[in-house]
Design brief:
- 2 copies of one chain form a homodimer.
- By secondary structure, chain A is of the alpha+beta class.
- Helix content of chain A is 37%, strand content 27%.
- Chain A contains 4 helices and 6 strands; from the N terminus they run αβααββββαβ.
- Chain A has helices at 6-15, 21-30, 37-49, 91-102, and strands at 19-20, 53-57, 63-67, 74-78, 84-87, 106-117.
- A 3-stranded antiparallel beta sheet of chain A has the order 1-3-2.
- In chain A, α2 (21-30) crosses α3.
- The radius of gyration of chain A is 16 Å and the shape is flat.
- Chain A starts with 5 loop residues before the first helix and ends with a strand.
- The A-B interface holds A 56-57, 59, 61, 63, 76, 78-79, 85, 87, 90-92, 94-96, 99-100, 103-119 and B 57, 59, 61, 63, 76, 78-79, 85, 87, 90-92, 94-96, 99-100, 103-119.
- The structure holds a DNA duplex.
Amino acid sequence: MSRSNPRVLNTLERAGGFASAQEVYHLMQRAGESIGLTTVYRSLQSLADDKIVDVLRRDDGESIYRLCGDAHHHHLVCKGCGDAIEIPGGAIEKWARTMAEEHGFRDVGHSAEIYGLCQKC
Amino acid sequence: MSRSNPRVLNTLERAGGFASAQEVYHLMQRAGESIGLTTVYRSLQSLADDKIVDVLRRDDGESIYRLCGDAHHHHLVCKGCGDAIEIPGGAIEKWARTMAEEHGFRDVGHSAEIYGLCQKC
DNA sequence: TATGGAAATGAAAATCATTTTCATTTCTGC
DNA sequence: GCAGAAATGAAAATGATTTTCATTTCCATA
């Protein structure tokens, strides 16, 4: 009994990586698709219930969604100009798994970000 | 220039573990202390800026605060109950430094968090 | 093909933590 | 004592999310 609108999932795919409900909504609007914000919220929630997407919280409290199992990467963000470079997770992946295991955590994901000043700034 | 009301820190200590701004506020009310919600928010924010307390997000989006040990650490957060365990950074520290160096970034910091379901959930 | 109920939809209102505004009070140094 | 700075808090604003509810779309079956 999927209550999820397929176009929402589609948009999330197109977005690549994380997107908030509001972002998905605006993406769809810009793409000329007619949909209500309520439906976007309901669909994302349903996708999360079905374990099709991961839910996280951004620092500002907004919920962000991502397709599960997506190859993920991390970001190197410049505090000056805001530029973000995608970088591989490397050692983090193992660290996360080890730490989680050590404390008996299941169904584990992680987020990591490096910030600093880039060469130009 | 501390903008933090000492009674707020005091209450957070008494609370033990995590407490949200609203919870701290109600605790103080119940204790007969006169304080405004605004001041509670400002004080907790200031304590967080000064790295005296840790800030996390509960699943419902509410921010929760806890006195933190001085060592640099990361968090293992349960998606179910919101419990957070402090864990050492380990490999991450080096990873962050390496990645930053590789791209010529200076003045580098990082954030990382692992989330999953704890044994109880 | 009609029909009746279930599910989906979305606009608008409600909720709720947090932030902002701004007038007032409390501190400080002189 | 006094001026200016900092702290305070009530009330309004903000913004994401949820709820309400009337309407529309589906779909199985008569």
